[in-house]
């Protein structure tokens, strides 16, 4: 099954703080599109804030409104709007003219792609028939706006906590998202994932190791569909004789689960557990195959636009995924857990991220980096920096960077290296990697968002 | 839980370095023992360097005193017996 590479029509909803209206609009539009059979491979809806604090949580009022209108508020985290986000977007939407104008002042080239949601509704209603591909709509609508200035019927009311204003925002967005989904769903091709499973199997690239995954059991097709979605960036089209076979079995009678386990399959009662445990299983199989040839660090990897990768090294459960998500909104997401290095070359492993979700009693669910709209690294990736993370609540409010003496740092790094003793020159191989990146740095910080302003310095850009 | 303090070795105990791999930098050494690493001080690094061939602790103590001088207080031989005991306990040295 080849990975689908056609690009989605990208919509970015923008407000100021990205914890209320834009979050609400994002989730309601996703809801409406899904209800119309449109998946994220066809139209991808994301959001951001002009003055957002990266990683901020959703306003509980917005979360309640999303749920009330049949959407899903899980896994949301605010992010600040950036030039690459704007550049990668086909259509930008705001709730108010003031936010539209602020966005256009900051990114003038986006003017003809940026509309208020009221304006969009008005423009579509004014155009009797718009039989053009969706990608051409922004320009057509902008031209029409240019010829006949429009006076939209509505703007989103101010966001000021629970009450009549918030309810009105919910109702307006609910209607406009439904309207937009109805228009757009007729224009995109058939969904690839909603109706039929792409295949009951898939091939994944785990830093060079090919895993040939067979999804079996009563819910095997559903699992395959979910696997394609959350592992979207690790899918590869070609299988090979070298592929490591993995069977993942879901559902059915306990006897069937037991039989699957007896023949060596990973077997689970439900899809959530299968996705959760498969992530670790896939990583471990890649690590087993990479032993002796790759330096494999317990580290998140984040890349600059030039392909320079910073490895943020830390034990499991100490904030790598959160950091990868916050930084990945603005820099290339390489991985959140296992950074594989060959010489100075980094082998990306953009696996799903485990994110705690509100609607599942705090259970961690697997999220595709595409669903979280993390940036894609481009070109060849080179390791240029290794940072030992020291995240603690009593760290200085402004993150502190300090050089770590070579052997002391190497001792710490060894504990976060898989199969170090199988490397050709053991400790010396790891020592060479550290020397290559100019030594180790320790980063003491409290919150992931505090690290964002340090990125230019860490990348040697200033 | 604190680890028990290893017993000092006798001065006539014979030891030899057995670590699998090491990186030296600025007079200190990081050694690999099994799947663990041990960071050695400058004195411990010198001791392990002198114990590539089996040697008794008093000979090693003499060499270390020549190299680093006597410690400011206490018996240098007793100090080396304690250090060698710790290195044996960590698997960096083996007692023959």
Automatic annotation (TrEMBL), chain A:
**Classification via InterPro entries:** Ptyr_pPase, Ptyr_pPase_sf
From which residue to which does any coiled coil extend? none
List each copy of the Phosphotyrosine protein phosphatase I domain by range. Answer: 9-137
Output the Gene3D superfamilies linked to this UniProt entry. 3.40.50.2300
Highest taxon of source: Bacteria
| Protein name according to UniProt | Phosphotyrosine protein phosphatase I domain-containing protein
- Organismal lineage: Bacteria, Bacillati, Actinomycetota, Actinomycetes, Micrococcales
From TrEMBL, chain B:
Q: What domain of life does the native source organism fall in?
A: Bacteria
Protein name, as recorded: Coenzyme PQQ synthesis protein D (PqqD)
């Amino acid at each position: 099954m080849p990975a689908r590479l056609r690009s989605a029509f990208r919509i970015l909803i923008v407000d100021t703080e990205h914890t209320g209206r834009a979050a609400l609009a994002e989730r309601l539009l996703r809801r409406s599109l899904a209800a119309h059979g449109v998946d994220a491979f066809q139209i991808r809806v994301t959001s951001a804030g002009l003055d957002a604090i990266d990683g901020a949580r959703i306003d509980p009022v917005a979360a309640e409104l999303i749920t009330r209108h049949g959407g899903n508020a899980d896994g949301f985290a605010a992010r600040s709007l950036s030039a690459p986000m704007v550049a990668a977007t086909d259509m930008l939407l705001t709730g108010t003219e003031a936010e539209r104008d602020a966005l256009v002042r900051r990114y003038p080239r986006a003017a003809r792609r940026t509309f208020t949601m009221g304006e969009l509704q008005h423009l579509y209603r004014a155009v009797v028939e718009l039989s053009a591909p969706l990608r051409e709509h922004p320009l057509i609508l902008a031209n029409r706006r240019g010829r006949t200035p429009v006076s939209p019927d509505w703007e989103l009311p101010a966001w000021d906590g629970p009450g009549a204003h918030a309810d009105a925002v919910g109702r307006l967005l609910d209607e406009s998202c439904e309207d937009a989904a109805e228009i757009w769903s007729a224009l995109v091709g058939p969904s690839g994932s909603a109706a039929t499973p792409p295949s009951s199997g898939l091939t994944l690239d785990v830093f060079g190791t090919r895993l040939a995954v067979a999804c079996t059991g009563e819910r095997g097709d559903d699992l395959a569909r979910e696997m394609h979605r959350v592992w979207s960036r690790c899918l590869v089209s070609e299988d090979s004789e070298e592929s490591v076979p993995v069977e993942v079995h879901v559902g059915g009678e306990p006897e069937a689960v037991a039989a699957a386990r007896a023949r060596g399959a990973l077997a689970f009662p439900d899809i959530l557990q299968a996705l959760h445990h498969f992530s670790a299983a896939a990583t471990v199989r890649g690590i087993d195959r990479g032993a002796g040839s790759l330096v494999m660090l317990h580290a998140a990897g984040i890349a600059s636009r030039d392909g320079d990768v910073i490895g943020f090294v830390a034990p499991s459960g100490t904030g790598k995924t959160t950091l990868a998500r916050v930084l990945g909104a603005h820099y290339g997401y390489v991985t959140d857990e296992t950074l594989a290095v060959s010489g100075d070359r980094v082998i990306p492993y953009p696996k799903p991220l485990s994110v705690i979700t509100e609607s599942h009693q705090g259970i961690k669910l697997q999220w595709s980096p595409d669903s979280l709209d993390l940036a894609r690294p481009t070109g060849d990736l080179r390791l240029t920096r290794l940072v030992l993370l020291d995240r603690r609540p009593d760290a200085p409010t402004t993150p502190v960077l300090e050089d770590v003496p070579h052997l002391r740092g190497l001792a710490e790094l060894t504990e976060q290296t898989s199969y170090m003793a199988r490397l050709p020159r053991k400790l010396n191989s790891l020592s060479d990697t550290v020397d290559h990146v100019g030594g180790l740095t320790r980063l003491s910080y409290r919150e992931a968002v505090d690290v964002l302003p340090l990125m230019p310095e860490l990348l040697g850009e200033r | 839980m604190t680890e028990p303090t290893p017993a000092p070795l006798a001065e006539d105990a014979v030891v030899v370095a057995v670590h699998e791999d090491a990186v030296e930098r600025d007079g200190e050494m990081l050694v690999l023992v099994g799947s663990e690493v041990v960071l050695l001080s400058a004195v411990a690094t010198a001791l392990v360097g002198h114990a590539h061939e089996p040697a008794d602790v008093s000979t090693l103590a003499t060499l270390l005193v020549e190299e680093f001088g006597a410690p400011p207080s206490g018996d240098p031989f007793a100090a080396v017996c304690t250090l060698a005991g710790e290195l044996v306990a960590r698997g960096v040295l083996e007692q023959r």
